[in-house]
Amino acid sequence: NAGVTQTPKFQVLKTGQSMTLQCAQDMNHEYMSWYRQDPGMGLRLIHYSVGAGITDQGEVPNGYNVSRSTTEDFPLRLLSAAPSQTSVYFCASSYSGAGNYGYTFGSGTRLTVV
Amino acid sequence: AQRVTQPEKLLSVFKGAPVELKCNYSYSGSPELFWYVQYSRQRLQLLLRHISRESIKGFTADLNKGETSFHLKKPFAQEEDSAMYYCALKGGGGNKLTFGTGTQLKVEL
Q: What would the pLDDT profile of B49-65 be if each residue is shown by its tens digit?
């Protein structure tokens, strides 16, 4: 099992450029989410999905779009990159429902916007 | 609204000393609490779940509903414990996790 796979690992963008961060999981998890990690701020939820075709906003959704066409994939799109989006992005997945399931995280994408 | 507070940004202890990483939460329902650990520049890993009442790598955490706390403890710190530790709460519908701001644990020789 690969778990949660994120690509790319590193990316530098110019202000105004767009890009897609990829996230794929092979554990048949219903729930997937994107977080950004910034120093002193912990992890903040950007968007999440409870299943294919269903997405919702988290705490900091502005400037980001998501879609969930399959159970496995949950890409995060930056529409017009801004320096404030410089961060480390983590994708995570888990089973849904009761059971106190923890998350499985990807290895992260370190994004710099210049 | 749910909130997780980790009051210490950095905790420095000597090897062999006891460790306590503090976590307080605010949530109106029945909380599900977790501790995650992130070693240098690696992915976050699940360390503990309160419902399991387990001990992982010598760490334990007890949910105290009266004090709304879920502190992480270890009796004797090891050098390999140096990492960033995040407390997290699941609630508010679905599987959304709310994270604290994290505590960097540094174990000195």
A: 887 778 889 999 989 98
Ranges of beta strands (E only) in B1-109 are 3-5, 10-14, 19-21, 24-26, 32-38, 45-49, 60-61, 72-74, 83-90, 97-99, 103-108
- The answer to whether the Cβ–Cβ distance between B96 and A40 falls below 8 Å is no
Q: Cα angle vertex A63, ends A97, A38, to 5°?
A: 75
Contact yes or no for A66/A35 (Cβ under 8 A): no
Residues within 8 A of A (CB atoms), B 13-52 only: 32, 34, 36, 42-46, 49-52
Buried b / exposed e over B64-102, threshold 16 CB at 10 Å, is eeeeebbbbebeebeeebbbbbbbbbbbeebbbbbbbbb
The pLDDT tens digits of the residues spanning A54-111 come to 999 999 999 999 999 999 999 999 999 999 999 999 999 998 765 667 899 999 999 9
Mind spelling out the 3-state secondary structure of A48-64?
EEEECCEEEECCCCCCE
